[in-house]
Amino acid sequence: MEAREAIALGLGSFMVGSDFIAHVAFAGVAAVGGFFFAIGGLFFLMLGAFELVIGIGLLNLANWARILTIVCAAIGLAAASLGVLGALVHFLPVLMMRRAITARELTRSSSGISRNRT
Predict the structure, then answer these.
(1) Is 71 exposed, middle or buried (CB count within 10 Å of its CB: 0-12, 13-18, 19+)?
(2) pLDDT tens for residues 33-76?
(3) What is the H or E stretch that residue 35 is in?
(4) Do 73 and 50 sit in the same domain of this protein?
(5) What number of CA atoms fall less than 13 Å from residue 45's CA on the CB side?
(6) Which domain holds residue 101?
(7) For residues 42 and 10, what is the distance between their CA atoms, to the nearest angstrom?
């Protein structure tokens, strides 16, 4: 995500969250949702500003910007690895086969087919 995209996303989220809070003040779930939109907007604004500073540092060939870029890339790689691990945990071929067999047995029993006819 580029800095301008993060800033635009942050501004949009902040405006939507603030709008929810302003129009539905203390109306329960909507106000809480608006609060989280506003917090998410602030997060993306800070992320965009951080990326903008790093980008300017990289253009100026600053060593601290290179180090921060490597650290951010490592954090992104770790987060992506956790995402893939989470997907693999939820993808259980054995569970899928068991569900398919159970569904087949249910359709067989509901259609009136029985194995032991007399």
Answers:
(1) exposed
(2) 667 777 777 787 788 888 888 888 989 999 999 999 999 899 98
(3) helix 29-59
(4) no
(5) 12
(6) 63-111
(7) 6
The pair of three-digit structure tokens given for residue 69, joined into one six-digit string: 């870029």
Spatial contact of 5 and 50, defined as CB atoms under 8 Å apart: no
Residues in the chain: 118
**Environment class of 44 (CB within 10 Å of its CB; exposed 0-12, middle 13-18, buried 19+):** buried
Based on the fold, state whether residues 51 and 10 are members of the same structural domain: yes
Say how far apart CA 19 and CA 40 lie, in whole Å. 14
Token couple for 16: 């939507």
* Same domain assignment for residues 92 and 45: no
Q: CA-to-CA distance for 107 and 66, rounded, in angstroms?
A: 60
> How far is residue 35's CA from residue 75's CA, in Å, rounded to a whole number?
27
Note the pLDDT tens digit of each residue in 66-116: 999 999 899 989 988 888 877 776 666 766 766 777 777 767 666 655 555
